[in-house]
Amino acid sequence: MMIIVNLDVMLARRKMRSKELAERIGITEQNVSLLKSGKVRGVRFDTLAKICEVLDCQPGDLLEYRRDGESERPTKSAAA
Predict the structure, then answer these.
(1) What torsion do the CA atoms of 50, 8, 62, 5 make, to the nearest 10 degrees?
(2) Residue 61 to residues 5, 80: CA-CA distances in angstroms?
(3) Calpha distance 58→68 (Å, rounded)
(4) Which residues contact 22 (CB under 8 A, 6 or more apart)?
(5) Taking 80 as the threshold, does the pLDDT of residue 15 lie above it?
(6) What is the pTM of this model?
(7) Could you give the CA distance from residue 73 to residue 23 in angstroms, rounded to a whole number?
(8) Using alpha carbons only, what angle is made at residue 25 by residues 10 and 38, rounded to the nearest 5 degrees?
(9) Whole-angstrom Cα distance, residue 59 to residue 45?
(10) For residue range 44-74, what is the model confidence (pLDDT) as tens digits?
């Protein structure tokens, strides 16, 4: 079981840098970097809520569940 963190994708979509997100949600830039890389064991719901508020997204936009051995989802063009 894997939880994939797509924070880097959302930051790119919103054209926002990690530094700006860190300042706006009140955590260190290093902690944002750890979140982006998926090297954290957990995230507080209040931190997740702040990220969602700033990035105008849902938790499901940031977090993705994959079964062991499951690769990335096929893109629409690959599935066709």
Answers:
(1) -120
(2) 9, 24
(3) 24
(4) 28, 29, 31, 32
(5) yes
(6) 0.81
(7) 32
(8) 50
(9) 10
(10) 999 999 999 999 999 999 999 998 876 665 4
